[in-house]
Amino acid sequence: MMEITEIEEEAALDNIKSGERIDDRDLKEFRDIEVVTGVAKKAEGSAKVVLGDTKVIVGVKFGLGEPFPDTPDEGMLMVNAELGPMASPDFESGPPGKDATELARVIDRGLRECEAIPLEELCIEEGEKVWKVMVDIHVLDHDGNLMDASALGAIKALKEAEMPGYEDGEVLRDEGEDFEVLKTPIACTIGKVDDKYIVDPGLVEEEVVDGMVTVTWTEEELCSLQKRGNGGFQKEELLEIFELAKEKSSELRKFI
Amino acid sequence: MSEDKELLKDGKRIDGRAKDELRDMEAEAGILKRADGSGYFRMGGTEVIASVFGPRELHPKHKQKPQRGIIQCRYNLAPFSVDDRKRPGPSRRGKEIGKVAEGALSSIVFLEEFPTATIDVYMEVISADAGTRCVALNAGAIALADAGIPMKGLISSCAAGKIEDTPVLDLKGEEDKDGQVDLPIAMNIETGEITLLQMDGMTDIDEMDEMLDLAIDGCKKVAEKQREALMETFGDKK
Question: How would residue B236 be classed by pLDDT, with cut points 50, 70 and 90?
Fold first, then answer.
């Protein structure tokens, strides 16, 4: 946090209060977005998302494993996030901290709750062997709103993924077929300062907003919510935020 | 997600509650000696003990904020709090709940009075039957008040959810497991501000409206219970 000065924070806050942004965006405008696939050759699916100066790579790998005892006939979805030291002077090596854990779990729930991945079709032998779908989020450059960038990268990488073949306990990575993804959950984070809402909060803005809500919509349904930051929201504000996120998520959906 | 179990029958739930009814509650303040503040909260079969230490100096120093203090929360499931023993040690779920609990509690404390300091809130789930993060926050808020931390209000928490396509208040274990939506919130009762909001499951804005109303009413009832416990400790001496 030492990298952000008080002057920058004040500027970001004053800008939002007067309906502007420090990077000259409209309050409800995303930064420039670029999505590239096939960025990791060894991954079964991968995507790089550039959101302003935030850069994230998501890779999908398939593997074999023993199912969870309570879902013996379902494959497993695992989402992991690494906020490695290369992405920010504030990040340290070591096991995932609270921020990385929250990031991974919010994206996991977005995918899981709407059943984007048909896990029951990933069972090979009930109670014995199932496919594991492992989604790894690697943050390269943290300039704010890792949540939306990573969620977009995750669903894009899954949609691009080629599912390997299977024979006699072996994963055949040379044989691929398109991996089926049923829904397209899109995370959209809305920040609030007084009565103003902002879309796609940047690094400094994340520090100064009263609070944020990451809202995940499929095409029609709301499938996950996570309020972030220290402030609070009135109920009416939340309902407005859900609506705004639905509208703005359609802009992100175009990249899928 | 499976709906083979009957969770609603003639408008009643598996434990006989109405749709907008909380489980029975119990609250107590000042139950631990060494902590600066402590609290206990129970909702049905979910019980949490919380303790507060601080304000005290924050280590490592580079995490200190020159302008204000911070709140650090640890949420932990005791190994014996669940059906199959939980392996001790940090879990991904626990880390995330610690983080959202910090977000829920920070806005009610006058943190600007404690630059560079930390207030540590430890929440230990003794018995888990759904709603553990809500009960943990309820105990944590009592503990903060018991520690004499200057606060703008009280944080009270409970969850709403959806079972068999019906919005209901305060899910218990079976309802959470087989239900469709879980929506825990925490609220500053004085201002109506919602400081914790999580949701998973499939829903829409109208249903959210309905579930939020249920949860907000629930929080108000939780607040009464918390206040009772604090009055017992700090009210007119017996």
Answer: low
Judging contacts by C-beta atoms under 8 Å, the chain B residues touching residue A213 are 197
Q: Higher-confidence residue: A148 or B235?
A: A148
- ∠ Cα A240 A245 A246 (to 5°): 100
Across A124-138, A225-239, B52-66, B120-134, least confident range:
B52-66
H/E stretch holding B234 reads helix B205-234
CA distance A80 to A85: 16
DSSP string, B91-110: -HHHHHHHHHHHHHHHTTB-
Q: Select from B62, B197, B212 the Cβ nearest to the Cβ of A213.
A: B197
* pLDDT at residue B50, as a whole number: 98
Considering only CB atoms, B202 lies closest to which of A99, A113, A231, namely A113
Residue partners of A67: CB distance under 8 A and separation at least 6: A73, A74, A75, A76, A123, A126, A127, A128, A129, A130
Instruction: Say if residue A126's pLDDT is above 80.
Output: yes
Q: Name the interface residues of A facing B (CB cutoff 8 Å).
A: 1-2, 6, 96-99, 101-102, 104-105, 109, 112-115, 211, 213, 218, 220-235, 238-239, 242-243, 246
Determine contact, residues A152/A248, Cβ cutoff 8 Å: no
B238 CA: distance to closest CA in chain A (Å) = 37
How much is the pLDDT for B11?
87
Residue B155: phi, psi to the nearest 5? -100, 130
Cβ contact (<8 Å) for A238 and B212?
A: yes
Q: Distance between CA atoms of B134 and B185, rounded to whole angstroms?
A: 7
Task: Say yes or no to pLDDT of B186 above 70.
Answer: yes
Residue A160, both tokens: 């691009």
Say if the Cβ atoms of A226 and B193 lie within 8 Å. Answer: no
Computed over every residue of chain B, the mean pLDDT equals 94
Nearest CA distance, A173 vs chain B (angstrom) = 30
Average pLDDT rounded to a whole number, residues A141-164 = 97
A50-65 per-position pLDDT tens digit: 999 999 999 999 999 9
Kindly report, residue by residue over B159-169, the tens digit of the pLDDT. 999 999 999 99
Structural domain boundaries in chain B: 16-229
Domains, chain A, in order of start with CATH, read 6-253 (3.30.230.70)
Whether B116 has a pLDDT exceeding 60, the answer reads yes
Closest partner residue to B196 (CB to CB) among A227, A239, A243 is A227
Contact A163, A176 (CB under 8 A): yes
Q: Which CATH number applies to B16-229: 3.30.230.70, 1.10.275.10, 3.40.30.10, 3.30.300.350?
A: 3.30.230.70
Task: Tell me if chain A has a CB within 8 Å of the CB of B103.
Answer: yes
